[in-house]
C-alpha cells in the first residue's frame, strides 16, 4: 500500500511576486546559516534564512525587472544573478554587504539561464545567450573576457538557445557545453574549439530545461510537450536518445538532478513537482501543493544527507520546501 | 420494318417521312424503341448502314425534325451510338442544330442527366461538332452567370444548366480550355457572385460546386477555389459529372485526375515530417544493471490525473471572466463558455438578476480561442438566458435587432435565439428538436441555411395533415403533451417589437433593400412565433398585424422571402381561431385567396407554389369546418 505523498516541510511566503529561480547555499560548516536565494518577477532577490524561514536580505539590482537566474560562486558571499534587464550582476554579500560588484551587459532579451562552471580557483566560465539570435557566448569570470562564441552553422535554424549546461568530465579536462534550442534539439559544443560535436533532436517543441549527469554521461530534457527525453553521450561524443517518458500533463519548466544522482525533480506547468529515480526514470512521487505553474526546482547542497531539501518556486508566489528521499 | 441491304440507290425519303410523322404524333417511344436497337446493331461495323441511317434522318422534313431528333437523343443508350446514328446532322441541318444546341439545353429542362451526357458527348466527338460544343458552353455560362436568371428561374432549371456546364467541361481538351480560359474565368466570377447572393441554400451550393469545378479546370497547377459546404447527393452527382473520362472520347485523360494524384502525394509527404531520432540504444542496459540502490519506494500517485481547469461556479464570476481583459486566463475563459449554459439553467434566480447584462455579453461575445462548437455553445447559453428571464431579455434582444452597428450575422443570431427560446418555452418536447448546426469552420464562410424553418415546416405539415384528418374522422390529435405553456404570457414581447420597425431603414441596415436575407429570416421567424402563439390572448392582434405585414411584402422578388410569407399565412390560419378569421377578416381573406391562387399557378419557385396550395387547402378546411358546425 503506497503512502500518500508527503507535505512540504515548510513553505516560504513573502516574495509578493512569482518566483522564477532558486539556489541553495547550505554547504558551509556550522555556525553558517543555511540559505536559499530566490529571484522573483518583481526584480528582487530574496535571501532566505532556512532556520528562521524568514527573509534576511532583499537585493534589488535589476531595476524591478524579473530575475530568472541566481547562482552562487563558491560560497554564499558571491552571488550571480541574471535578470530581464539584460544584465548579469555579480554581488558581494560578505559581511552583510549588498552591493553589485560588477555586471555584464548581455543584450539578451530572452529567458535563457546562464550556466556557470568553476575551472580553477577563482576562475569561472559562464555560458550565456548573446545578443544575436542563435549564439551562445562563453565568458571567463571575473575577468569578463570572451572565450568564444558558439554559432550554429548557417541555415541550421535552431532558434534561440533555451537552456545551457556547462560541464567538464573532470577537473582540468575540456569544458563542454550542452545547449537546448527552440527547435527541440540539444547540441553538444566543444568550448575550446568553438564547434559543435553532436546534435540530437529530442523534442518537437522548444527544449525548456535540461540537466546532465557527467558520471553516467546521461542527460534529460523537458519541453512544452508531454514527453521527457533521456539521452546519452557515447565515447565518440555523440548524443543518442536513450529513452522517453510520457507525462500526464504537458509542460515542464525546469529539471534538476540531485547531486547524489539518485533522483531528479521536474517542475511542471500543471502545478506539480514530479520525482523520478534517475537510474531508470521510475516515477516516484507527484507533489501537489502549488496552485499555479511551477517555475523552478532546486536541490540543496547540504553536506549531511539527512538534511537535504528540495525547493520549488511557483507563479503563486510561494516557495515550497520538501524533504523527500533524504534517508538514502 | 425491314430494310433492303446492298448498295442500291434506294430512296429512303419515304421512310423518313413515315418516321417523322409517327414521331410528331407522339409515338416516338414505340417506334424508336424498335428502330434504334435495330440500327445500332446494323451500324456497328457496316458503313453502308451508317450512311443509310444518316440519309434517313436527314430526309425527315423540317417540321418533324424536332420530334425525331429529341426522340433519338433520348433513346440512344450512349453518345457514340448517337453519333453513329445521327452523323453530322446537327451541323448540316439548321433545325436539328437549333433543337440540340438551344432548345434542349436552354429552353427545356426536363431531360435526365443521361440524355444530357449523350447530347454533349455527341457534340464533342467530331471536330466539326466541337465548335458547336464550345458555343453551347458559352451560352450555358452566360445563362449561369446572369443575375436575373439566377433570381427568377426555377431551381430545377438551374440545376439542369449546371449539370450541362459540368458535362461540357469534362469534354473539353486542354487547348480549348486555353483558348477560352479568360471567358471561363469572367463568367465564373460573375456567376459565383449571383449564386452566393441568393437566399436559397440549394442555389448557393450549386454555384459553389460549379465554380469549384470551373476553377479546377482552368487552373490545374495553381491554387484552386475551394468552398465549404455540406456534401449531399446532388453535389456528389455534380462533381462526378466533371471527373468522367468517357473511354470512347477523343479527349485525353483529364488534367484533374493527375491533379488529384498530385494532391494526394503532397499530402502524404507532409505527414512524414522528420520526427525525433528513433531510440538507438534499446533497454538491454537496464536489465544488465542490478537494482542495487533501487530501494526508493514510490509514493502513491493515484491522484495524478490530467489537469482540468475549473469553471466558475457562480454566474457573476462567469460574467467577470467573460468580460475580463486578462488575456492570460484563456483556459478559464474556455471553461466558462463551456459551463455557462448549465450554470444558467441551474441558477434561475441568480440569472434573473443579471439577465440583460448576460444577454448583452453573449451577443457581443467573440471567439477568443479555438473551442469546438463555440457558436453552438454561445447560442445555447443565450437561449438558456432568454428562457430563464423572458421579458426583459426579449425586450433587449428585439430592440437590438433594429439598432445600428450590428452585423447581419448578429441580427440573424438574435432571430434564431428568439425562435429557439420560444419553442422551448412553448413545450419542453420541442427542446432539442431543431438543433442549429451553428459550428462553422474557416475557409469561405457562408451563412447556414434556415434549418429551423425546415424543422418547423415538418411540424406544420404534420399539423396540417392532422387537421385535415380531423375533419374527416372527427378525432382530435393531442399532439403536444400537456404542460403549462410558459410562452403564452411572453409571446407578445417576442413578436410585436420585431414587426414594428421593419420599414424604417437605418444607415447600416435596410430590411426592404439589400438585406433581404435578413428579411427572409425575419419573416420565417414571425411565422414560427405566430404558430407557437396558438391559444394565447394576443393571437388575434398578432394575426392582424401579421396579415398587414405580409400584405406589403407579398410581391417581393426574393423567393426565400415569399416562402416565408406563405409560411406566415399558414401559421396565421392554423393559430388564429377560425371564427375570428371569418368574422373579422373576410375581405382580407378573399383578397388573400385570389393572391394565393395566382402564386400557385404562376410563381416560378416550386416551394412557393406548394405552400400556396397548402394555404388554399387550409382556408377551404376552415370554411368547411365552420359550415359543418350546426348553427
UniProtKB/TrEMBL annotation, chain A:
<dbReference type="Pfam" id="PF00400">
    <property type="entry name" value="WD40"/>
</dbReference>
<keyword id="KW-0677">Repeat</keyword>
<dbReference type="InterPro" id="IPR015943">
    <property type="entry name" value="WD40/YVTN_repeat-like_dom_sf"/>
</dbReference>
<keyword id="KW-0853">WD repeat</keyword>
<dbReference type="InterPro" id="IPR001680">
    <property type="entry name" value="WD40_rpt"/>
</dbReference>
<protein>
    <submittedName>
        <fullName>GNB1L protein</fullName>
    </submittedName>
</protein>
<dbReference type="InterPro" id="IPR036322">
    <property type="entry name" value="WD40_repeat_dom_sf"/>
</dbReference>
<feature type="repeat" description="WD">
    <location>
        <begin position="287"/>
        <end position="328"/>
    </location>
</feature>
<feature type="repeat" description="WD">
    <location>
        <begin position="200"/>
        <end position="241"/>
    </location>
</feature>
From TrEMBL, chain B:
<feature type="domain" description="TELO2 ARM repeat">
    <location>
        <begin position="126"/>
        <end position="225"/>
    </location>
</feature>
<dbReference type="Pfam" id="PF10193">
    <property type="entry name" value="Telomere_reg-2"/>
</dbReference>
<keyword id="KW-0472">Membrane</keyword>
<dbReference type="GO" id="GO:0051083">
    <property type="term" value="P:'de novo' cotranslational protein folding"/>
</dbReference>
<dbReference type="GO" id="GO:0051879">
    <property type="term" value="F:Hsp90 protein binding"/>
</dbReference>
<dbReference type="GO" id="GO:0005634">
    <property type="term" value="C:nucleus"/>
</dbReference>
<dbReference type="GO" id="GO:0016020">
    <property type="term" value="C:membrane"/>
</dbReference>
<comment type="similarity">
    <text>Belongs to the TEL2 family.</text>
</comment>
<keyword id="KW-0963">Cytoplasm</keyword>
<dbReference type="InterPro" id="IPR051970">
    <property type="entry name" value="TEL2_Regulation"/>
</dbReference>
<keyword id="KW-0539">Nucleus</keyword>
<dbReference type="InterPro" id="IPR057348">
    <property type="entry name" value="TELO2_ARM"/>
</dbReference>
<dbReference type="InterPro" id="IPR019337">
    <property type="entry name" value="Telomere_length_regulation_dom"/>
</dbReference>
<dbReference type="InterPro" id="IPR038528">
    <property type="entry name" value="TEL2_C_sf"/>
</dbReference>
<dbReference type="Pfam" id="PF25320">
    <property type="entry name" value="TELO2_ARM"/>
</dbReference>
<feature type="region of interest" description="Disordered">
    <location>
        <begin position="249"/>
        <end position="297"/>
    </location>
</feature>
<dbReference type="GO" id="GO:0005829">
    <property type="term" value="C:cytosol"/>
</dbReference>
<feature type="domain" description="Telomere length regulation protein conserved">
    <location>
        <begin position="312"/>
        <end position="422"/>
    </location>
</feature>
<feature type="compositionally biased region" description="Acidic residues">
    <location>
        <begin position="282"/>
        <end position="297"/>
    </location>
</feature>
<dbReference type="InterPro" id="IPR016024">
    <property type="entry name" value="ARM-type_fold"/>
</dbReference>
<protein>
    <recommendedName>
        <fullName>Telomere length regulation protein TEL2 homolog</fullName>
    </recommendedName>
</protein>
<dbReference type="GO" id="GO:0042162">
    <property type="term" value="F:telomeric DNA binding"/>
</dbReference>
Amino acid at each position: 500500500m503506497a503512502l500518500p505523498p508527503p507535505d512540504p516541510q515548510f513553505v516560504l511566503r513573502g516574495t509578493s511576486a512569482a518566483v522564477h529561480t532558486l539556489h541553495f547555499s547550505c554547504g558551509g560548516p556550522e555556525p553558517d546559516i543555511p540559505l536559499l536565494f530566490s529571484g522573483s518577477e518583481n526584480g528582487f532577490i530574496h535571501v532566505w534564512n532556512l532556520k528562521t524561514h524568514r527573509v534576511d536580505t532583499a537585493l534589488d539590482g535589476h531595476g524591478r525587472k524579473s530575475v530568472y537566474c541566481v547562482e552562487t560562486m563558491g560560497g554564499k558571499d558571491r552571488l550571480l544573478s541574471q535578470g530581464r534587464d539584460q544584465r548579469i550582476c555579480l554581488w558581494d554579500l560578505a559581511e552583510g554587504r549588498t552591493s553589485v560588484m560588477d555586471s555584464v551587459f548581455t543584450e539578451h532579451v530572452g529567458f535563457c539561464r546562464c550556466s556557470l562552471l568553476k575551472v580553477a580557483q577563482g576562475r569561472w566560465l559562464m555560458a550565456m545567450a548573446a545578443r544575436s539570435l542563435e549564439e551562445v557566448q562563453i565568458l571567463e569570470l571575473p575577468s569578463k573576457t570572451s572565450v568564444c562564441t558558439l554559432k550554429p552553422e548557417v541555415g541550421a535554424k535552431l532558434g534561440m538557445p533555451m537552456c545551457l549546461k556547462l560541464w567538464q568530465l573532470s577537473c582540468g579536462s575540456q569544458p563542454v557545453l550542452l545547449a537546448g534550442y527552440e527547435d527541440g534539439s540539444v547540441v553538444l559544443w566543444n568550448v575550446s574549439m568553438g564547434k559543435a560535436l553532436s546534435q540530437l533532436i529530442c523534442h518537437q517543441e522548444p527544449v525548456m530545461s535540461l540537466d546532465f549527469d557527467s558520471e553516467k554521461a546521461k542527460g534529460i530534457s523537458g519541453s512544452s510537450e508531454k514527453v521527457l527525453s533521456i539521452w546519452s553521450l557515447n565515447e565518440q561524443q555523440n548524443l543518442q536518445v536513450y529513452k522517453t517518458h510520457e507525462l500526464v500533463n504537458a509542460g515542464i519548466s525546469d529539471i534538476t538532478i540531485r547531486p547524489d544522482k539518485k533522483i531528479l525533480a521536474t517542475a511542471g506547468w500543471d502545478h506539480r513537482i514530479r520525482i523520478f529515480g534517475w537510474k531508470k526514470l521510475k516515477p516516484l512521487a507527484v507533489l501537489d501543493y502549488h496552485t499555479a505553474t511551477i517555475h523552478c526546482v532546486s536541490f540543496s547542497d547540504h553536506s549531511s544527507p539527512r538534511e537535504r531539501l528540495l525547493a520549488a518556486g511557483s507563479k503563486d508566489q510561494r516557495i515550497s520546501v520538501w524533504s523527500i528521499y533524504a534517508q538514502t | 420494318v425491314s430494310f433492303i441491304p446492298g448498295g442500291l440507290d434506294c430512296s429512303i425519303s419515304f421512310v423518313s417521312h413515315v418516321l417523322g410523322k409517327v414521331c410528331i404524333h407522339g409515338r416516338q417511344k414505340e417506334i424508336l424503341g424498335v428502330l434504334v436497337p435495330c440500327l445500332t446493331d446494323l451500324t456497328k461495323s457496316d458503313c453502308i448502314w451508317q450512311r443509310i441511317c444518316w440519309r434517313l434522318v436527314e430526309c425527315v422534313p423540317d417540321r418533324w425534325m424536332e420530334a425525331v431528333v429529341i426522340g433519338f437523343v433520348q433513346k440512344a443508350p450512349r453518345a457514340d451510338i448517337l453519333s453513329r446514328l445521327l452523323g453530322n446532322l446537327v451541323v448540316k441541318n439548321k433545325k436539328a442544330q437549333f433543337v440540340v444546341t438551344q432548345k434542349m439545353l436552354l429552353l427545356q429542362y426536363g431531360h435526365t442527366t443521361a440524355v444530357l451526357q449523350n447530347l454533349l458527348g455527341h457534340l464533342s466527338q467530331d471536330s466539326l461538332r466541337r465548335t458547336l460544343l464550345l458555343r453551347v458552353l458559352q451560352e450555358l455560362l452566360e445563362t449561369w452567370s446572369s443575375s436575373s436568371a439566377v433570381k427568377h428561374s426555377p431551381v430545377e432549371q438551374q440545376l439542369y444548366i449546371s449539370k450541362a456546364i459540368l458535362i461540357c467541361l469534362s469534354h473539353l481538351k486542354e487547348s480549348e480550355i486555353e483558348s477560352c480560359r479568360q471567358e471561363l474565368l469572367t463568367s465564373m466570377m460573375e456567376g459565383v457572385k449571383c449564386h452566393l447572393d441568393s437566399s436559397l441554400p440549394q442555389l448557393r451550393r450549386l454555384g459553389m460546386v460549379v465554380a469549384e469545378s470551373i476553377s479546377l479546370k482552368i487552373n490545374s497547377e495553381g491554387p484552386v477555389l475551394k468552398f465549404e459546404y455540406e456534401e449531399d447527393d446532388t453535389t456528389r452527382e455534380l462533381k462526378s459529372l466533371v471527373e468522367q473520362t468517357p473511354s470512347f472520347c477523343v479527349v485525353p485523360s483529364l488534367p484533374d485526375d493527375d491533379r488529384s494524384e498530385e494532391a494526394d502525394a503532397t499530402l502524404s509527404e507532409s505527414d512524414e515530417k522528420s520526427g525525433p531520432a528513433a531510440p538507438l540504444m534499446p533497454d538491454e542496459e537496464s536489465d544488465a544493471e542490478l537494482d542495487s540502490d533501487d530501494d526508493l519506494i514510490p509514493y502513491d500517485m493515484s491522484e495524478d490525473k490530467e489537469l482540468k481547469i475549473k469553471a466558475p461556479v457562480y454566474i457573476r464570476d462567469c460574467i467577470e471572466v467573460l468580460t475580463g481583459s486578462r488575456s492570460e486566463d484563456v483556459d478559464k475563459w474556455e471553461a466558462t463558455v463551456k459551463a455557462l449554459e448549465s450554470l444558467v439553467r441551474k441558477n434561475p434566480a441568480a440569472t434573473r438578476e443579471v439577465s440583460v447584462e448576460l444577454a448583452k455579453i453573449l451577443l457581443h461575445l467573440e471567439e477568443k480561442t479555438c473551442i469546438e462548437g463555440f457558436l453552438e455553445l454561445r447560442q445555447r447559453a443565450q437561449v438558456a438566458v432568454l428562457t430563464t428571464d423572458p421579458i426583459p431579455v426579449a425586450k433587449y434582444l428585439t430592440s437590438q435587432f433594429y439598432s445600428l452597428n450590428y452585423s447581419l450575422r448578429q441580427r440573424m443570431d438574435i432571430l434564431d435565439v428568439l425562435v429557439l427560446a420560444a419553442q422551448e418555452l412553448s413545450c419542453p418536447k420541442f427542446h432539442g428538436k431543431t438543433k442549429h448546426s451553428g459550428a462553422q469552420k474557416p475557409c469561405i464562410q457562408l451563412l447556414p441555411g434556415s434549418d429551423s424553418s425546415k424543422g418547423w415546416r415538418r411540424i406544420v405539415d404534420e399539423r396540417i395533415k392532422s387537421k385535415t384528418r380531423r375533419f374527416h374522422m372527427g378525432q382530435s390529435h393531442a399532439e403536444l403533451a400537456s404542460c403549462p405553456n410558459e410562452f403564452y404570457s411572453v409571446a407578445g414581447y417576442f413578436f410585436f417589437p420585431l414587426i414594428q420597425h421593419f420599414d424604417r431603414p437605418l444607415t447600416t441596415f435596410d430590411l426592404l433593400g439589400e438585406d433581404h436575407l435578413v428579411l427572409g429570416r425575419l419573416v420565417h421567424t414571425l411565422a414560427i412565433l405566430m404558430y407557437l402563439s396558438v391559444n394565447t390572448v394576443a393571437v388575434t392582434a398578432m394575426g392582424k398585424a401579421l396579415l398587414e405585414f405580409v400584405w406589403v411584402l407579398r410581391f417581393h422578388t426574393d423567393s426565400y422571402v415569399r416562402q416565408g410569407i406563405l409560411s406566415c399565412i399558414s401559421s396565421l390560419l392554423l393559430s388564429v381561431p377560425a371564427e375570428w378569421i371569418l368574422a373579422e377578416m373576410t375581405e382580407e381573406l378573399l383578397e388573400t385567396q385570389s393572391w394565393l391562387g395566382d402564386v400557385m399557378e404562376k410563381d416560378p419557385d416550386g416551394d412557393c407554389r406548394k405552400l400556396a396550395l397548402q394555404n388554399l387547402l387550409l382556408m377551404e378546411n376552415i370554411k368547411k369546418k365552420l359550415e359543418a358546425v350546426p348553427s
